[in-house]
Write a structure and sequence with these properties.
Shape: globular
Radius of gyration: 22 Å
Structural class: alpha+beta
Number of helices: 1
Order of helices and strands: HEEEEEEEEEE
Length: 139
């Protein structure tokens, strides 16, 4: 009887350890889900008196590739030519979208489609606005 109790206790302890390891692995997956690498590809610039024109990422002095880290609340350029990091003020998840907000020279927001990987960045200032489109992967 003592052996059976010891075996049952060992099984319970082992099962508990496996559950703890699985929970830790899930935490790691959640951390990984919160990092995106995005390619910015298409841009539109609008001025209230002049209308809108399509421009390039280079003309807007934006990086072609960025790393978005929701845990660190940062967007970091992966381009050597445009070296900068931007702080994210808020992160929300809404109906399959991850929505980020912040300020840097003007107010901005970023929407990432969790399933599609599409990214849209909008920024607005005093009489001007910008829209930037691209695609993200979750490596």
């Amino acid at each position: 009887m003592a052996r059976i109790s010891a075996v049952l206790l060992a099984i319970v302890v082992l099962f508990g350890a496996v559950e703890v390891m699985a929970a830790e692995k899930d935490k790691d997956k959640d951390k990984d889900r919160n990092v995106f690498v995005c390619a910015l590809s298409r841009t539109v610039e609008c001025v209230s008196d002049e209308g809108c024109v399509e421009t390039t990422v280079q003309e807007m002095v934006l990086p072609r590739f960025v790393r978005i880290d929701l845990n660190a609340k940062s967007i970091t350029s992966l381009d050597k030519e445009v070296d900068r990091t931007t702080r994210i003020s808020s992160v929300e998840r809404l109906n399959g979208l991850i929505v980020l907000h912040g300020t840097e020279q003007r107010g901005w927001s970023v929407a990432i489609g969790e399933n599609s990987g599409n990214v849209t960045l909008t920024a607005s200032g005093d009489g001007d606005g910008f829209v930037v489109f691209g695609s993200c992967i979750n490596p």
